[in-house]
Amino acid sequence: MARFETVTLVFAPPDVLFDTSLSVETHTASMAGSSERAVAGVTTGLLGLGDQVTWQARHFGLTWRMTSTISAWERPGYFVDEQVSGPFRHWRHEHRFEAAPHAGATLMTDVVDFSAPAGPLGRLAELLVLRRHMTHLINLRNQHIKTILERSP
């Protein structure tokens, strides 16, 4: 199983950052480069505890679908999304929001645990490609959120 963690400082209060992170539209906009879109379940608005969404995106020249559910949710401190079905053997993404020492800022921490299917070949893919690719996608998403919140009045 692979794990990575990213921390992003965003000049916005935790509750605003929490809600923005649960927005289907914000997520879709942040992943425009892979043509990601919500195709089933909750496809617009904010996700909440127990909600499921099926994402469809293009990565590595292939179209993928992943259905995830919001399995834990405590506003404005954290939520967790986990794969119900899709390309990974295991996918768990914990989102944490904590007031930063800077006035009006929040530390957004993403902890992602995942594993690829296909045994030893999947583990090799995790090490050589997937960890770097997934970290890039999470950072892309976080920079999008940071940009839209920090430019808002």
How many helices? The count is 3
Rounded radius of gyration (Å): 15 Å
| Mean pLDDT, all residues | 95
Low-pLDDT stretches are none
Output the helix-strand order. EHHEEEEEEH
- Roughly what fraction of the amino acids lie in strands? 35-45%
Shape: globular
The amount of helix comes to: 25-40%
Q: Give the biggest beta sheet.
A: 7 strands, antiparallel
- Identify the quaternary structure here: single chain
User: Structural class from helices and strands?
Assistant: alpha+beta
Question: Strand order across the biggest sheet?
Answer: 1-7-6-5-4-3-2
What is the straight-line distance between the termini? Answer: 41 Å
Number of strands: 7
What does this protein structure show overall?
The protein is of the alpha+beta class and 153 residues long. Helices cover 31% and strands 41% of the residues. It contains three helices and seven strands, in the order βααββββββα. It has helices at residues 14-21, 24-30, 119-151, and strands at 2-10, 37-41, 52-59, 62-74, 78-85, 90-99, 106-115. Strands 1-7-6-5-4-3-2 form a seven-stranded antiparallel β-sheet. β5 (78-85) and β6 form a beta hairpin. The longest helix is centred in the last third of the chain and has 33 residues, at 119-151. The mean pLDDT is 95.
SSE layout and pairing:
Layout (H helix, E strand, L loop, with lengths): L1 E9 L3 H8 L2 H7 L6 E5 L10 E8 L2 E13 L3 E8 L4 E10 L6 E10 L3 H33 L2
Antiparallel strand pairs: 1-7, 2-3, 3-4, 4-5, 5-6, 6-7
